[in-house]
Amino acid sequence: MMIYALDVFIVLAGLCIGSFLNVCIYRLPNPDQSIVFPGSHCPICDTPIRMYDNIPVISYLLLAGKCRSCRTPISMRYPIVELLSGLTALAALLKFGYSWEGLVVYLFVAVMLVVTFIDIDHQKILDVITLPGTVICFLCSFFVDWITWQQSLIGILAGGGSLYIVAKSYLLLTGKMGMGGGDIKLLAMIGGLTGWQGVLFTIFAGSATGTVAGLMLIAAGRFTNFRRKIPFGPFLAFGAVTYLFYGKPIFYWYIGLFH
Ligand SMILES: [Zn+2]
Question: What is the pTM of this model?
Fold first, then answer.
């Protein structure tokens, strides 16, 4: 396989955008903080992080995972998010080439990374991501070849509607809120890019992986209390991303089983 300079540039851009995603994960849940100013600084000693200490993944390794001035360990989370973002750029490039489709899939996965880690940290999915995200997904339907704008609209309704019905019935049956409103808006956004087929796939894949992960956590003794909530957002995000890369063949194979 030939490696082109543009490919290398795209993957490096993915790593750098990963750095920005870390800032979003850290600052977006706090509405008082701008995601642009001030520049990055150590959360412990407040020392501004120098340009040469802010190189994705590499700086973390060179600094052995510690702040240069106060030697406080830096979370592994930072290089992991950067690496995931770079790998996503590579995966989108290999699968979609230089195309609108590749760009849209990369950006979607980047937003899903932010949603996932904020949901893990704070057990919430922010409207400031999903509401504009739904509109942007709808607009993207004009640029990508796998969905029309009509299918996008149906997907938004299917995503928002289906989880709303599940959440409402759970509330009626048990008197408790089982699913957050954030999950509903996230699925509407997912539907905007994947259509109703993607919504079905995402609910199915998200519930299956979420159940397995929950059982594994219980088995590992991490959850002594069964009522403790495991955030659903990361599993919905995982399902949606899987659908964008592999879902269509899986979905039609599954439908084909009944014909
Ligand atoms: Zn420090």
Answer: 0.89
